[in-house]
Structures
1.
Amino acid sequence: MGDFTYTIWIFILPIAAFLITGLFGSKMPAKVSGWIGTASITVALMLALRTAYQYFIQVGFVEGHRPTVFAYKEVWMNFTETLTFDMGILIDPISVMMLVVVTFISFMVHVYSIGYMKGDKGYYRFFAFLSLFSVSMLGLVVATNIFQMYFFWELVGVSSYLLIGFYYDKPSAVAAAKKAFIVTRFADLGFLIGILLLSYHAGTFDFMTLVSEDGPLLAQSAPPVFMGLSIFGVALSLIFIGGAGKSAMFPLHIWLPDAMEGPTPVSALIHAATMVVAGVYLVARLFPAYHGVDGGVVLNLVAWTGAISSLFAAIIAMTQDDIKRVLAFSTMSQIGYMMLSLGVSGMEGHHGLGYMASMFHLFTHAMFKALLFLGAGSVIHAVHSNLMSDMGGLHKHMKITSWTFLIACLAISGIPIFSGFFSKDEILVAAFEHNKVLWAIEYIVAGITAFYMFRIYFGIFWGKRREYHHTPHESPMVMAIPLMILAALTMVVGWAIPFGNYVMPDRMAYHGHIEWSLAIPSVAIGALGIFVAYIFYFKETSLPEKVSSAFGQSYGWAKDKFYFDEIYQFFAHKMMFAGVAAPIAWFDRHVVDGFMNGVGWMTETFSYLLEGWQSGKVRQYGFSFVAGLLVILFAVLYLNGFIDFKG
Amino acid sequence: MIEGITVYDVLAVSTIIFFIGIFGFVTRKNLISLLISTELMLNAVALNFVIFNKFLYPGQIQGYVFSLFLIAVAAAEVALAIAIIISLYRMDNSVDADDMDTLKG
Amino acid sequence: MNNYLLMRDEFVLLGIILLLLVAEIMLIGKNRKAVVGIATGLFIVHTLVGFLPLAEGTMFGGSFRTNHLLHNMKSIMNVGVVILLLQTWTWAREEWSHKGRVTEFYFLIFSTLLGMYYMISSGDFLMFFLGLELASLPVAGLVAYDLMKMRSAEAGVKFILMAGVSSAVSLFGISMIYGISGSLYFSEIAQNFHLSGLGALGLLFFMSGLAFKISLVPFHFWTPDVYEGAPVPVTSYLSVISKAAAVFALAIVLFLIGREFVSVWKPAIYWMAVLTMTVGNLFALRQKNMKRFLAFSSVAQAGFILLGILSYDQMGMTSVVYFSAIYIFSNLATFGVVQVISLKTGREQMDDYNGLYRTNPKLALVMLLGLFSLAGIPPVAGFFGKFFLFMAAAAHGYYWLVIIGVINVTISLYYYLLVVRAMFLRKSDTPIESFQAEIPVKIGLALAVVGILFLGLYSPFYDFILNLTTNI
Amino acid sequence: MDILSLLVVIPVITVLVLFFINDNQMVRIISALGIGIETILTLFIAKGFMAERAAGNSSEFLFTRDTVWFESLNIHYFVGIDGIALAMLLLTAIVLLAGIFISWNIEDLTKEFYVSLIILGTGVFGFFISLDLFTMFLFYEVAVIPMYLLIGIWGTGPKEYAAMKLTLMLMGASAVLLVSILGIYYYSGMTFNMQEIAQMEMPIHAQRFFFPLAFVGFGVLGALFPFHTWSPDGHASAPTAVSMLHAGVLMKLGTYGAFRVAMYLMPQAANEYSTFFMGLAAIGVIYGAFGAIRQTDLKYINAYSSVSHLGLIFFGMMALNKTAYTGAVLQMISHGLMTAVFFALIGMLYGRTHTRDVRKMGGLLKILPFIAVVYVIIGMASLGLPGLSGFVAEMNIFVGAFQNPDFIHRVFSVLAVSAIVVTAVYILRVVGMMLMGPVKNEAFYKLPKAVWYERVGALLVLLPVIAIGLAPMWLTTLIQESLGHIVEHLAAYGH
């Protein structure tokens, strides 16, 4: 089955880069740490590509489906004799695909950052954290068991905290980082409890046993325990909550818009391509279990969360002024697509289309969303502001960025020959076959997506010419090249890679064909979206204001992200701080502490009470002497039964 | 012994004397009267010994010997107590038991 | 037939007393300061002689009896008095230089000690009564020793009157016991002294006399006033030696005649222990004067000793003797320091001790060790003493008493730490200026500290006492 | 003189030597030397222990030595260590050495400070090596009493009140412990030897009466929920090295004792009370975490976080299975190291900024990079970041706790697990307020960087935290071997 042991180097290099830049970065000249980081990720990318080539091409199909290969598998810690926590590298279609995606996007971001971050005081620190993030994401991707995934899951959370809070002297960045970490940590709580339930009821963490037909989950049918779900159902939905948190799904999405406080390359890497798809990858990894347990009811939860998130995010995206926030909500919407697609997918053959479509969309989305973010980055770099209102007519000044941005917008809107069309179309097909309502929602979202993407495109590059105090210039080559590479890929990947051949739930080959009957309407709504955006934003018109006022109050709500931040603020600060922490602090200070001091105080007052007894008068001593003696005497006599007081 | 008088009657007398002594110690104000009450108690006890020896154990003399020693010791004690009371009086020229309560608390 | 050698200790002590009297007469006019040296030296000789082994036996028809336990109890007290005399060296010298009379002090000390000897080794109530009185009356003289000070006289009066009442009550008890059992000899009493109401009354009244001297709660009222009023050496003597002797006497007498009255005196001692520990601690919490503070601390310690007596078996007796020995050493350490300081600066309030460590560290360390030993903190000996007392009580299932005792240990730790706080934590602008004590006083303090540090860890000491108590 | 008793003898000799030295610098060197030798000896013992285990010697306690002390009362000086005790000894050695370095700048009464600190260390070393209840209890009290002087003289804030409260509560707890030791002694045939007692089955009614006393007696020192009030005040007022040693090591005395004496000797009662105490511990975990959120004084935050982590240890122990036990012991070690570094850092910060109020400090990451980075790493360790020791310990405890399908256990376990979120909140709140954000006070720019002895002290304790976090296998096997005997013993009577 081929020797994959070299894959360990994909990890050792970034770790080495992290240690070197982290510990000695401040001592070396800034550029050096940039080169070290980029070099290590380049080699890692090459190794990942070699792994993909070797796995998909050389190893290919064994008995009709692609095998699972363990490059490494050692026991890292043993909880009990049977239950062990091992570390290892698992090679299978989706993990190799993710390896390629993560290393590639990370490579692009590294190259881009050399330009973007030039002159920044924390330059070495940025590259150190980037390497740390890459390692943890790669670790998460190749995890052989769910506990190893949780191990790297937390590391991903921390590195995103460090990167979001990179400009740590800005209080808003610090708050955003803290919010991101705590919300994801809250979701990880669900994930951890899910794992712990599995640890007892399934008796193992290993993915292969969890998803195998005769494994503990799928073999016996466990009795319903809670709301109709069996214990495994509960565990899997809790694990999904963990994934939803990391992928900023509907209720747990509030940290994603604020995460834009971090440098743009960070958003490109983390909040576009890698971290946010971790949830999707988790569900994909456990897909057979999700499909099998309790008849796949948990998948409905997954699907509907995806649908709501994508619609909700799309609506808000239309109203945002900060271009990075628009892209953030667009990411949330696209991930909603992927979750939905997984939710509607079956297992065998054609029914597995949803799974394949979701993975394909993940693959393509990584490309064009990274491109969008990097493009936005170079715009912000040139204009030094995030707000669309400060931009306009940049096409003349930034040709490359403008064209690459256009290609990405076309891709995301699902226009044919661009990659977005192929992946999104298959999702719509899968949704259509499974549940018409979901298809309808996603159909509308496709239109809205096209609209808001072209809204910012026209808003930035066309629209009214603004006077700039110093003329914006095209970003340097080191930033432009990644844009071009990504743009090229976005155009090619869609039709060049027969994704069905590589990634399927049952790992058999599947040659799908474009379902034109559904493709044409989706392209039509995309075009419609673009057209409306063209009218609104190509030239400076008052049309957008009139329409938004027409929507009246609802526009304001959407603009303020439906006040979810305020709700969370209330819940976190009022409830948790004032509602729980304050009473506990008070309780501790007064009741528990009060009791201890009370004991001391009581002995003190009691001793002052007795003061009078020692009056200094001999006569009283004599009295106490005799009285004391008589009391003892009568007590003893009574005890011995010589006298009783019944007369 | 006089007929008709049992050990209990005489014993009652000596116990009454004893408790008079105690009562005296508790109620009287003057130091000397306190001393007198202690002496009263000691003598009542000496009486007790003699009574028991006479009435219950005529054959032996332990009770009598004991009361003799007791009287001797009581005398010594009174002498000492008077000496201290006088020295107190010389310094404080008052013999009232209640204003001797500087040491208290 | 009476082997007079049995009373060797008593005779040697009597000899010393007479020698002192003669010395008093001989040295009129000349410098009688030497008496201090002579008396201490003689007593050290007496103690060394006391260490020599002594045969067991009785005299005067059983009225005086001695065995290894009694003999060693006396030598424990001797060691205590030696340390005390060393510590009062400067006080005695000054007593002589101011008031020109010091032999009376030694005369009274030794005679009370003689009384205690007789009290312990008495075989019958007559000898016991004489020993008790001989141990009480001279103490009144000692207490009222400072003729110049009103406090001393007041303390003396209080002591003598209360002593009178307690001996009267105790004798009343003895007369009742005599009335029932028809004899004064403990051995005969033990045969025909059977459980009866009047017997219970007699025994309790008798015990009150001893309870007075050990200062158990309902009978302890004289202790704080007398301790505060009397000069410091006398207070130290009272709290250390006279209390230990009374404890020994109580234990022995209860062993001899209390066999059948167990159901009478055990509950009494149980509740007196609870009362003594608690009331002693509660009063000690508030004290500001060091002497009064240590008075209540000694009252509380007496409560713990009762735990040992309560267990009424060989292990109980051993723990009582062991604890008393350690109690003597710890008290001598604390009282030694109080004595040196009050003699040099006349200051006895606890706040005067603020910042003591910064001016004279060695004194503060001695005080610290003494207090920790009283509080029962390892590795000093007090911990072992207390632990074995609790073991003795727990052996008989008195778990609730042990719990009360243990709570009281914690309360006692609080007020012992108050002194430690004053010495170490607090700073003061008028601390006790650093000074050097005289050699003998230093030796006295050093001996006490050695006793505290090594008596506990050195286990053969416990085993030695254990095989002493095989026959009581 | 066997090796283990050397552990007690060396500090005593150091103290005696210190008595005759008056120059402050000399005192520091001598004590560093003494404890340095002690640490080397501990490492040497660890190596010997490993070799012994490797050579297949699977007896429960190694290096055992039994000499009679009070022959008539059957009290022996019986010493011996197993895997857990060895881990505790290593922890003590490291934290004590770090503490000595950290308190290099104590000027007032330096000699007395180091003497008391080393006496405290002696007590702790003695406690961990002794297997005889009497000697264990003696060392336990020797370890508690110097706290009064250490906090009272060199402390800050309401030091006298805090010192008195701490000492009284701990000595009160040891008093309760004394009662239970006596109970165990008499109900198991008059012996203090733990191995014999474990074989002897104590009558169940005695166990029911004495187990809570012993558990609470030790629990108070381990800041078990309702008895933790001394910990915030005590730690806030104590000088750095003392709170390092206290929170890092002395609290482990409580948990180790509760585990070794209360549960090992009275298994039936341990099983009966397990649900109750597990609930108490779970509340403690949440209670401590929430308590820490409100605090603004750094030391109070750390004190409450210690209450929460200690609660986790008790929780792990009361889950009564091998994994949870391993987790509890791991947590003891990891929390010991973490709190030590936390207090060291707080000491350094307080030494410079003369304030412990988090709101007054800001933007220190730029000014004091070394201290800030170490603080972030240790903060991450304490909230259970994988790759650091906190994660390893907590995961063991949680997996162990979930092995019991009983509903109440599940509720308590979920309660304890949810503490990881609350811990994250207060750790990040402090890191956000103190290290990040704009510099609030201009004077902070001139603050001096970390000095050599501060770096040594902090790194000395930080490296093991990372080592355990990355490769826990060597430690877990060591602990699991020694736990084997105990868990079988407990399981035999358990559910």
Note: Residues 62-92 of chain B form the longest helix (31 residues).
2.
Amino acid sequence: MDILSLFVLIPVLTITGILLLKDARQVRLVAIFGMSLQLIMAAVLVFLYLSARHSGNTDEMLFVKDYLWFKSLNIHYAVGVDGISVALISLTSIVVFAGLFASWEVEYLKKEFFISLILLATGVFGFFISIDLFTMFLFYELAVIPMYLLIGIWGTGPKEYSAMKLTLMLMGGSALLLLGILGIYFNSAPNGGRLTFNILEISKVVIPISAQRIFFPLTFIGFGVLGALFPFHTWSPDGHASAPTAVSMLHAGVLMKLGGYGAFRVAIFLMPQAAKELSWIFIILTSISVVYGAFGAIAQKDLKYINAYSSVSHCGLVLFAVLMMNKTAMNGAIIQMISHGLMTALFFALIGMLYGRTHTRMINQMGGLMKVIPFLSVCYVIAGLASLGLPGLSGFVAEMTIFVGAFQHPELFYRIVTILAISSIVITAVYILRVIAVLLLGPTTNEHFEHLPDAKWFEKISVVTLIGSVAAIGLAPFWLSSMIGTSLQPIVDRIVALNPF
Amino acid sequence: MSLGTFFIMRHELLLITAALLVLIAEIFVDAGKKRSISLFSVIIFGVITLAGFIPSPTGTVFGGMYISSGTTLLMKNILNIGVFLVFIQSLTWLKKEENSEKISEYFILLIFTLTGMNFMISAGHFLMFYIGIELATIPIAALAAFDRYRNKSAEAGIKLIFSSALSSGILLYGLSMIYGTTGTLYFSEVAKLFVNNNLQILAFIFFFAGMAFKISIVPFHLWTADVYEGSPINITSYLSVISKGAAVFVLIIILYTVFPVIMGTWQKTIYVTAILTMTIGNLFAIRQQNLKRFLAFSSISQAGYILLGFIGGNQLGMASVIYYILVYIFSNLGAFGVVTAISNATGKENMDDYNGLYQTNPKLSLIMMLALFSLAGIPPVAGFFGKFFLFTAAAQKGFYLLVLIAVLNTIISLFYYLLVVKAMFINKNENPIEKFRSDFPTRFALGLCVAGIVITGFASIIFEAIKNLSFGV
Amino acid sequence: MSTGIPVQYFLVLATIMFFTGIYGFLTRRNLITMLMSVELILNAVNINFLAFNRYLYPHKLEGMFFSLFIIAVAASEAAVAIAIVINIYRRFATINVEDVNEMKH
Amino acid sequence: MINFSYTIWIPLLPFFMFIFLGLAGHKYFPKLSGILGTCGLAIITVLSYITAYKYFFTTEKVDGAFQKITAFNTTWLQFTDKLHIDLGVLLDPISVMMLVVITTVSLMVHIYSLGYMKGEKGFERFFAFLSLFSFSMLGLVLATNIFQMYIFWELVGVSSFLLIGFYYQKPSAVRASKKAFIVTRFADLGFLIGILILSFNTKTFDFISLTDPSGTAITQGSGIGFLGLSIMTWSMIFVFMGGVGKSAMFPFHIWLPDAMEGPTPVSALIHAATMVVAGVYLVARMFPIYALAAPVALNIVAYVGAFSSIFAAIIACTQTDIKRVLAYSTMSQIGYMMLALGVSGYGGHEGLGYMASMFHLFTHAMFKALLFLGAGAIIHAVHSNHMTEMGGLRKYLPITHITFLIACLTIAGIPPLSGFFSKDEILAAALHHNKLLFAVEYAVAGLTAFYMFRLYFSVFWGKETAYHHTPHEAPATMTIPLIILAIGSVLTGFIPFNQLVTSDGRAFESELELMVAIPSVLIGLLGIGIAYILYKKESAIPDKLAATFKYSYKWAYNKFYMDEVYLFVTKKIIFKLISEPVAWFDRNVVDATMNAIASVTQGVSFRIRGFQSGQLQKYGFVFITGAIMLAILFIYLWK
């Protein structure tokens, strides 16, 4: 058994364990045990990865395992990780861990809730470890579909509508993606030889440019839908608003990263020439995402909507940076994924906790919570500051890497667009501060809020884990950045080799 | 004709034997114990199903009118499995008082239709094909009208028999023109003499229309929904998987072996009809409330996806089609199994009745969800793999646009499958269907379906075996 | 070999019969009449087979046999159809096809 | 070479203090936090003084110039091979000078706060934030590269935000903190863009290589052009935008007066002595580039500074809230410093303005902190901010009175107090450079004397006001810092800045120019005189004057309606014209399109249901038609 497959196996075993439980009260214990194990595994993986790199292993992917699955189509179950996947796997473990604690108090159909949640996580883990397009796609869809039940059953508000919209739009994305993957597959051996789904093998050949022109947009939009690419982002506000806390956390925190990761690992890595040719179109779209999401957030009144639009903006930045196609910007994109994953999970966790106390998410119905529930409020402020890119927290590192990288683009157009994108940080400050000011500061407006209880221990675990991670990245970004940077090098080399500037 | 050649026809002979045994049993069993016939039949059929997997000689009989090859054996075995599942599922229903007199009829007729299908699949000559198709159709019409006292059942019967008569008339007219232009009805010779003139294209289209009727391809599908809704539920499931599956097998064999010359034409035909079938099937399915009718339209759109495997004329295409039929048998029978169980227990067949089902009958809901997800092509269940291979087969020949339309259609289909899931899991209901425990056969059949849905996908050996037995143009 | 009547005549006759059958199938409201129209279609096919066999491929008998089988199958088909029609009459008290439409949309 | 690596502890100590007090202070030692924070700061103050001494007096000069010493440097984040953010400590004359300023004022404020904030809710939080601020500010001035500066630039912004909003239950404080943050954030956007442009062209963030007069940044930077200005000029203009925001220059000054909602010690520390001069420091830090490669940008600096100083001075004359008067005075004085930089040249006597600016920065920190702390003492005693509710306080608050008077005299430029020297240098530099600017500054000098003494007389003299309870002198923790700072204000003027802090690190000779000094003293005295007449005793003249110049007074009183302009831009344009339409568009166009796809599908599904009519013969018809259509299609149309 290789270490990577454990990342799929542990959740599956956890699900089995939950299924076998007779006593519903132990469900969350088993779930948390399983996911803590997963978190430890992630730490072990990071350690193993770093030590392997340290000992001079310069392979593109480490811990590669390859099992032939469908021989006739050359489909393999192939796993392997580089620094990027390791980072994202760690992110996922952390967010899932925090998410479980944040959903400690779920009572309705508890067993099913945790099973669906972990199933979702399984898909995500599987996606990140896969280096075979088929299994990648399989895990991708596996991660999306539990969302329907999670939102539909445990959600709030117009949950059926939101769940349906979210599922269908994401599946629409994956439909395009399927086409893109098939296109890549059938062009994976232009010089004869065996067709393959293996990313590493495909990266050794050059897909004909005419095919790239067709399949790059399909693949990119396919992943882009999940990455909230304008104008395919509209599932996000409704979906997040209706989803239960842990689901919002996982969805915004992890699932949306699948989009960015895929766009980068599949669309751009495998089809760099078309990516370069067509990047201007998508750059425009992503810039719109970035600015538009931020402006959209200003006008919202529902906390979750604010955060959803903010996610649109931040995730837009990921795709934006990826399209800049240089190492620094891509590095920034990955860090942004991790950073946004953590802080948006933090946001949603806090919003869920606030909602659990005040029973409203409308900011104008709340006020002065700082005095009543200082712990949660302070955490909210920290999350906000991370989101608006305060140095010392992860958002700053990510955004600055993106901006510096994007601004190194040799063409003026891209630099000007970058400046537009940068302007979003001011808008972000506006809506974040507005929320903090209205929600937490000022006098306590509603007397019902005078005696709200502050965070319970499991909420504290959830929140502190996330804040700790955000701060760790913010304070010492170098190891993360260099871990990602090393792994980006071969990718960037390939892109540059195919697209001489 | 030596004894050995009989073994070539083993499947058909066994089936006929089984039918006769059931008939004899009918004579000797006392009037009060007729129900034991059903168990007897199922056991016999189970034995036949298992026997089908025993290695068997291949070759031709009747001067080439009957051909048995690895492919046909595979197809027959797949159908056997499906029929076996249908039989088990129907046990509960047959226990009902109103059916006690007709148990043997049910089995005999179904076994005969299956025999007809086997002959169709193994046909090497259009006469054999024709006899097979009629043998496979006419008894089903009688079965559709099985519930003598229900208006809908009679209506289903009449619609099926008249539509199929018309379609076989058209098909025969096409065959007569094939005969007129080539002078032969042997598949192998027709393939050589076919030259793609206008008359032959007309003949082909008429032939295709006849087959399309069986597979319920748009625009030849209109009977489907009414017949599915009106027939007894087990007949519906039989129609939707076995009948359709057999027709798909036959059509793909004939397209690949008889009409390779006009491949360009039939590709276009399939292109057009596939798009129509998927889209129309889906559009109609969205609005359905009756689950049988709902599944009818869903099966129409499924037929559209299946056509994607045809279009390339490649080996992968045939493999994916056969594989998909196998998956489809498990998935659709899983869904129908749940509908049957609930219908038997409560008589309810409407989607609204399923509201809140998960609260009372979680296992049934889960099986239903799994089956629907498989139909929708959601991983990790087998339907995902099936659809993926179908699309791959079409993409291999460059039909990317068609694949795009197909994948967009899967979104619509996902929508209505999710409607059922939503009804079961999310919708609230004051009076949900009461908790009940189904009897052993139902659970056994559903268990088999679930195992099939789960295992068929992951176990690559199944697909590889099918792939090895498939062939291209 | 009868030389008097050219093969085209048979084919034209068959075509006319075929479309008459289809027309009848589509327009007659009585189920029995519709069944008769189907028989017309099948008989048109029979004529086709026979004519082709006799005129074009006189050395083999495939067409002849085929039409024999068609006749046999048509008979069984008619038997089942009429049985169901009788049931329809019992249930609906009519054999007008337009009234048999409980299921639609 | 002397080892300066210990200097890394100067910023780190407050950082750990912040973490420590922030995490544990609330629970375990709420009372002790103040003492702890103060002790921490005392340690680094001592360290700073040692550093200053060692730097200025024991380090060898190379070629007669103070060297830039990188005492510590570590790569924090690698962007590309050449571009990386380092965190480190850069010692040069201005950073060492700033160390002294910051730690001194900060220590004073800490001590002062022990008394001022005693018993406030959130006492420990206050000290934690102060530590955070000290850390950020020190990190800012010690930055080895422009990106490090930007990092700490943001951090001082957020500590300022936290401290302004310290009384978070007071809506006005919350509003003010939000405003301060957003306005400066907007300006920082410019700073960031400037950094990006700069780094794109020079491929480095490092100050030493950027500001090397013979380095590539300066020698080649002026080449590439865009809209008629060189790229370097553009980047410097953008960078200056950051400085404008942080230093509350026109037009980003509007946050500063509102920031007075924070506790008074905070105003003294952040909004008078240290953070607001960060903009000046930034320009000074980048000065070689401004002077040698981007003269247009330098001119902009000068004019912005001049305009801000007179603009603020005029407003200050009309305000009645004593902290707001001081705030506008701060803005005006920083305008002075900016102007001084703007009129300076590089190297030798040309760099007189640079030296003057730094000099003024130094002296201003002392006397303005003193003024604010004095104001704090007054407010502490009277429980009001408004001059109209004060009067005759000299009897009740003797120490405060004396120290406040010293500060007022200093800012008015009365010799031999420190303000006289520094202001004199600035005027001299302006005179040599641009007569117009000189005239403006000369007027401002008079106005400054006037409004400061208007304040002084109204508070300590003027009408006898009846107080609810008798005002009493502040405790020793508060008065001691006042006295120390007063001494500082008196003495710092004699520090030979031209020997220590100059544009190129080399000492130059400058002497008092009597042609400038005498008129400036005179106009200061004139201002004091007018204030004396108007405000020494209660009189009706000010009201009459105000009535005479009704409109101009009203404009000035309402700060020339800048707040309203901003309100209009934010509320009406950003919110109403952009955000709401965007939100509307998102719901009703983008989202609606997606929903429309769904409803169209369902609509089609409903429309075509008649197709499935239930009529057997229609089915037959469709069947036949379908077959025939297919046949026609493939025989005739698409063969």
Note: Chain D touches chain A through 50 residues (CB under 8 Å).
